[in-house]
Design brief:
Elements (H helix, E strand, L loop, with lengths): L3 E3 L5 E3 L1 H8 L11 H8 L11 H13 L4 E5 L5 E8 L2 E8 L6 E9 H19 L3 H15 L12 E7 L10 E10 L20 E8 L2 E9 L1 H19 L4 E7 L2 E7 L3 E7 L2 E8 L1 H22 L7 H21 L9 H8 L22 E8 L8 E4 L2 E5 L3 E6 L5 E6 L4 E5 L2 E5 L4 E6 L5 E6 L10 E5 L2 E8 L4 E6 L5 E6 L6 E6 L2 E6 L3 E6 L4 E7 L9 E3 L2 E6 L7 E7 L5 E7 L8 E3 L2 E6 L6 E6 L4 E7 L8 E5 L2 E5 L4 E6 L5 E6 L15 E3 L2 E5 L3 E4 L19 E4 L5 E5 L3 E7 L8
Antiparallel strand pairs: 1-2, 3-4, 4-5, 5-6, 7-8, 8-9, 9-10, 11-12, 12-13, 13-14, 15-49, 16-17, 17-18, 18-19, 20-21, 21-22, 22-23, 24-25, 25-26, 26-27, 28-29, 29-30, 30-31, 32-33, 33-34, 34-35, 36-37, 37-38, 38-39, 40-41, 41-42, 42-43, 44-45, 45-46, 47-48, 48-49
Helix pairs in contact: 1-3, 1-5, 2-4, 3-4, 4-5, 6-7, 6-8, 7-8
């Protein structure tokens, strides 16, 4: 007796099916199916079309004939196509269609006799067995052909699923204020999903039920599709996704998609023009906003999905239905987040203002301009260290020591001689400093709070996984307990008490978009791409005000005095906006339309804000006075929008660019005060971090080396640092010592050389 195996469609078939499938392994010639089998399966609509693998086809036909299954789905090999064979009495209904996100039907319900299919397959197997001779493969083929011939078409399973007529959407003409709505009528089969015995699979065929789809547009009823309506709806949802992507990206779009005789076109500039209907009779709706064009389509898709699931609960395990439903929900959330107007102001702003009046936060003050050193500075190397996998973002000063963290370990070095004070082995992930506490986050989101004195952990906690770059924000002092704010999964923040590791509060955004956080004293400003800007009281953990007007904040806000500056607009888009808000109440002070979208976060420059706008090639920077929002000046971008780092020092705005060029602009009128070319843009390496450092009236600029200049006029205060390292990270302490780290794993310290000067 032959052994048995479990076939993919659920029936138990003899081992000859496994043997026949092995005949078509690589290296063994696959049997060429006669054109009569292709014609029998698909009719005359296709010529020499690919047919399913013979073993799968024979197994499916035996299962259908015996009544053990109602439907078989057979994927093709050479193209992303699938064949569905459905039992109907003594016949089978054969369909051929694409399996992409938007299915295209090639053949639907071609009727063919099951007996004819079995006999044709048996004839082919006999012929191929003769060609192979009396070997094992030939005998297996002969036995399989005999089984196909001996299989009788049972009366069991001959009745198809019951068709349930469902209607939904706009059955009658909607009110005059509704410019677009949809309705449908469909005959949905109950129990038509294959393979629903506890497993989920993608069943495109279950979506190909017939119906009628229509639209009501400004008092007229238009028939959009007759026959399978889900492919047309899927095309409409795809068009909505492309429209929303263009809307979020602040760019124009012109889309046209087809499905059979159905067509949809979307043109988006300042408003939306929607074209719908049959190819021979489309209609156009101009002057729509995004919500008017998109939400009716998403509502139609939801209604159809709801009707399918109500008719057949097994559709909940159909991956095609599940993916369509999730996409509809995600698009609806994105649209409604942009339309949401749930902003509010803080009616008790004076309480916060009074609490902060005694603690002037450093976010409002520009770097001090100290007198520049006289004479020439000379620095010499004092010590060096090798630290494998050194990270430029995880190197910190902490009192008399330098903390260098890598994924493998954290090391504390004496800043005077480089001696190792302690080593704590790593747990993967990232390391941050929050006040005097080292915060280590492992790869599995376990958080350690460590004492910088000895590196030992004194508290642990756990947060949700986060796949982006984590940023830790320290909040403390005055009425606020020492707290670190961390990303807690996508779209969430958690505040961890630095004394015991307990969670103090968490915050979750409502819409989509990454969170961008800025601290201003006890106020945390959280901007997200969904068009909201929230202010959180770090002491109480509550949202004290919210600004919401649909503008997308793609960069972190800044704080100048008691004014919050936020810029909206997608980088590379057409428009942008600068908004000034009161820090404690959220009231709008001013709103400025920018001539182009922002390309970098705003920079604080005294009582002014500098914003890079426009593209990378023809970008500009604008300087805005935050007292009234007036434009002070505008000039060509010296490199802020292409990855440059800037610093405002007194009345000079200095930008260090990846090309090695440093430009200083006069903050009064935007004119160029001085420029320097510090490195070769082609031959020299670019440091990981380009931020200039101001210390003691001297400006330390990382480039191919570290250069020390006078901010007022750019004059060198000495030769470049005698260092062969690429300054991926530089730190300068109050003594003028310079610490340079290269991410290859080397760290060096340089100290000023004492010199005599004449005192007049």
């Amino acid at each position: 007796m032959l052994g048995t195996l479990t076939f993919r469609f659920g029936q138990r078939l003899p081992m000859e099916l496994e043997a026949i499938s092995n005949i078509t392994r690589p290296g063994i010639p696959a049997p060429v199916l006669p054109s009569t089998l292709s014609t029998l399966l698909y009719g005359d609509a296709t010529e020499e079309a690919e047919v399913p693998p013979l073993a799968d086809l024979v197994g499916a036909l035996i299962g259908l004939s015996s009544g053990r299954q109602q439907k078989a789905l057979l994927p093709l090999v050479d193209a992303p196509l699938e064949v569905a064979i459905v039992r109907r009495g003594d016949n089978a209904l054969v369909s051929l269609y694409e399996t992409g996100s938007v299915p295209e039907v090639i053949i639907l319900d071609h009727r063919v006799s099951l007996r004819s299919l079995l006999d044709t397959c048996a004839e082919h197997l006999h012929q191929d067995a003769l060609m192979r001779g009396r070997n094992t493969a030939g005998e297996v083929l002969a036995r399989l052909a005999d089984r196909a011939e001996a299989t009788a078409v049972s009366r069991l399973g001959g009745r198809g699923p019951r068709l349930v007529e469902r209607t939904g959407g706009a059955l009658a003409e909607p009110p005059e204020d509704v410019c677009l709505s949809f309705g449908f009528r469909a005959r949905i089969p109950s129990g038509g999903v294959a393979g629903t015995d506890g497993a989920s699979r993608a069943d495109v065929h279950a979506l190909l039920f017939r119906g009628e789809l229509w639209a009501w547009a400004r008092g007229h009823r238009h028939v959009l599709a007759e026959g399978p309506i889900v492919p047309a709806i899927a095309r409409m949802v795809t068009a909505v996704r492309m429209l929303v992507d263009a809307w979020d990206g602040d760019r124009a779009a012109n889309v046209r998609l087809n499905s059979g005789n159905f067509t949809i076109g979307v043109r988006f500039e300042d408003d939306v023009t929607l074209t719908l209907g049959r190819k021979d009779r489309p209609f156009t709706l101009p002057a729509l906003d995004v919500s008017q064009a998109a939400l009716p389509i998403l509502r139609l898709a939801s209604d159809v999905i709801r009707a399918m699931v109500a008719t057949d609960r097994s559709q909940t395990r159909n991956l095609k239905v599940r993916n369509l439903r999730e996409e509809v929900r995600a698009l609806r959330r994105r649209i409604r987040a942009r339309r949401r107007d749930d902003g509010f102001v803080n009616a008790d702003a004076d309480r916060l203002r009074a609490a902060e009046s005694r603690n002037h936060h450093p976010a409002s003050a520009p770097p001090p301009m100290l007198p520049a050193p006289t004479g020439k500075l000379r620095l010499t190397e004092r010590w060096g260290a090798d630290v494998d996998e050194l990270d430029a973002t995880s190197t910190f000063f902490c009192g008399d020591r330098l903390i260098v963290a890598t994924p493998r370990r954290a090391v504390a070095l004496s800043r005077d001689d480089g001696a190792v004070l302690w080593v704590r082995e790593g747990i993967g992930g990232s390391t941050h400093m929050a006040g005097q506490v080292m915060v280590r986050i492992s790869g599995d989101s376990e958080v350690e709070l460590c004492n910088v004195g000895d590196g030992e952990a004194f508290a642990t906690t756990r947060i949700a996984p986060y796949h982006g770059v984590r940023r830790a924000i320290f909040v403390g002092g005055g009425p606020v307990p020492p707290t670190v704010v961390l990303p807690d999964g996508p779209g969430r923040l958690v505040a961890v008490d630095l004394r015991n590791g307990e969670h103090r509060f968490d915050y979750a955004k409502k819409g989509a978009g990454a969170l961008r956080v800025t601290r201003a004293g006890r106020v945390l400003l959280v901007a997200s791409g969904d068009g909201t800007l929230d202010a959180i009281d770090a002491a109480a953990g509550e949202v004290i005000w919210r600004h919401s007007d649909g503008s997308r904040f793609c960069f972190e806000p800044i704080v100048i005095g008691e004014t919050v500056i936020g810029v909206s607009g997608e980088p590379g888009g057409r428009t942008g906006q600068l908004i000034g808000l009161d820090l404690y109440s959220g009231a709008v002070h001013f709103r400025v339309e920018l001539p182009a979208a922002p390309s970098a976060a705003p920079i604080r420059a005294g009582r002014r804000a500098v914003i890079a706008i426009g593209g990378k090639r023809r970008g500009s920077i604008a300087c805005v006075d935050v007292s009234d929002g007036s434009l002070s000046w505008m000039t060509s971008d010296p490199g802020l929008g292409v990855g440059g780092a800037s610093l405002a020092v007194d009345d000079v705005f200095i930008t260090n660019t990846p090309s090695g060029k440093v430009t200083a602009l006069d903050l009064g009128d935007g004119s160029v005060r001085w420029t320097l070319q510090l490195s070769d843009p082609i031959a020299d390496d670019v440091p990981r971090r380009l931020e200039p450092v101001l210390r003691g009236g001297a400006l330390f600029i990382p480039s191919a080396s570290v250069h020390i200049v006078r901010p007022a006029d750019g004059q060198p205060l000495g030769a470049a640092l005698p260092c062969d390292l690429v300054p991926d990270v530089i730190r300068v302490d109050e003594r003028g010592w310079v610490y340079v780290g290269e991410e290859s794993g080397q760290l060096s310290a340089y100290a000023p050389v004492p010199h005599l000067s004449l005192v007049r």
